[in-house]
Amino acid sequence: MSLRFRINLVITLVIVAFTIATGNLLIEETRRSIREEMEAGTRITAQLLETVIANTRPNIQDAPHNQILLSFLQRVGRVRANEIRLYDENEKLLYTSPPPVYKRGRWAPQWFTALVRPQLSDFRLNLISGSVVITPDPSRSVLDAWDDLKQFFWLMLGFFVLVNVIVFWLLGRSLRPVGKILGALSLMEKGRFETRLPLFGSPEFDSIGHVFNRMAQTLEESLAENKRLALVAKQSSDAIIIHDLEGRISFWNPAAERMFGYRMEDIVGRSATLLTTPDRNGEIQENLDTVKRRVLIEMIETQRVTKDGRVVDVALSAAPLVDPGSDEVIGEICSMRDITEHKLVRQAELELEQNRQLTHAIQSRLEEERRSIARELHDELGQCVTAIKTIGTAISNRTQESAPDIHANALTIVSVASHIYDVVHGIIRQLRPTALDHLGLSETLKDTVSAWRKRHPEIACDLRLEGELEGMGETINITVYRIVQECLTNVARHAVATHSDIDVSRCSHAQHGDVVKVTVRDNGKGFVQQSEREATRFGLIGMRERVQALEGEFRIDSSLGAGVTVTVVIPVKIPASRAHGAEAA
User: Fold this and answer.
1) Could you write out the DSSP letters of every residue in 506-537?
2) 419 and 486 share one domain
3) Tens of pLDDT along 221-250?
4) Are residues 453 and 327 in the same domain?
5) By Cβ atoms counted within 10 A, which residue in 27, 142, 265, 447 is the most buried?
6) Residue 144: which residues within 8 A CB-CB, separation 6 or more?
7) How many domains are contained in the chain?
8) Does the structure show a pLDDT above 80 at 364?
9) In whole angstroms, how far apart are CA 250 and each of 208, 315, 330, 509?
10) Which domain holds residue 187?
11) 202 in the same domain as 78
């Protein structure tokens, strides 16, 4: 039953009740009015007849059968609403009033007559030779009351119909927003939380519309937030698991399925200890006890077991799951990230760092050995060759005239000794450029490039030096020198180039700060960088290891027919730990 019909029904019942109450009052008032009217009419009729009888008593007593009174009654007829009957001394009816002519032939319904007709008694006047009986006849008054009540009834019926029609129309007009509100609620029930109500003319419905729109906005935002959270949980690369306080799993996202191999329907409701190794079964309860105290667990490294029995290293974080209504901890939200590969990478980085330190130590020791060998060659072999050359020269001078054969042999010895001396000094320069100790990096590079130009006049070589290249330390100086030396050797042996450029500069770098940058390029044949032969060439590997040992950057750019460009960036300030490690090695 609609609200509109119920309101109309209530109004109808109120009007009917009011009509019944009013009808009862009217009937009671009508009954009282008829009684008073009849009683008054009876008294008037009785007084009239008493007056007539009193004035005509002598004549009446003389006249037979009360002919005078009969004649009077016949002339008068009915007196108001009373029926008059004349009886003689024998109770014989001599006269009765004619029926009323007012509204002749019409009568009120019997039920209405029974409701309003008063209980009236006859009035008798005794005569000397008979009697007159006055009987009140309220039928006309009842009929008048009935006619008046019918008019009232039709008026009330018209009023009732009019009121119902007006109320029904007004309710329909006033409750028209209810249909829109119900429609909007129906759409929201189907999940369309973007539904909004328009402005209404009625303040009450307008308030409802504003509240509805705010509620819909809140629900839409909450739904969007929940969707985002669900999407985050679904697309997260971390395994997200929710436990209750007994350690039973109640949520399991797709990342957890991928990590552990269990489907959500297979794992939900089971204990989280299913995922732990036997020696870590107590860890679940420890974590639950921690989150019960509302303490966060952040990125602890532990291990878990997959469905196929594989043990994976994970980084675990956990937070309490709090009921917003009671503000009580009802479970644990746990996220786990597989760090197996991360640990392998970290181990590899640690080994690489150790290799770098070892390489740096080896290079340092190698340079020391080269320096020692160069010193021995210079001090021992160089002096011996010089002595041989001196002796040969003396023999040659003494035997120039006396022994021409000996003189020629002596000259040969001097020539061979000079060649050996030059070769030894070349070897010494290759082992340890003494100019680094006396002239510095800039002059040593200039001397080295100048000597290389003389040995390879067919290849043009330009050297550009920029910035303060002194004071960078022996380790960096020897590394820069060896890189330039190796690059020039590769250009001469493999590049088939006609020109090469060498740029050495000290500048500021975005990542490393103060650095020395070395760039060596040529216009030779180039090579494919990923080719196995080039990737395993010892010269390139040696340069890369030297640079990486100093935490620098080493890059080779090349392609067939486009030459080779070697770029090296070395931080000038080497960490103290690295320097100490190298010295200790």
Assistant:
1) EEEETTTEEEEEEEEEE-S----TT-HHHHT-
2) no
3) 887 777 777 777 777 778 888 888 888 888
4) no
5) 142
6) 103
7) 5
8) no
9) 39, 21, 11, 53
10) 177-229
11) no
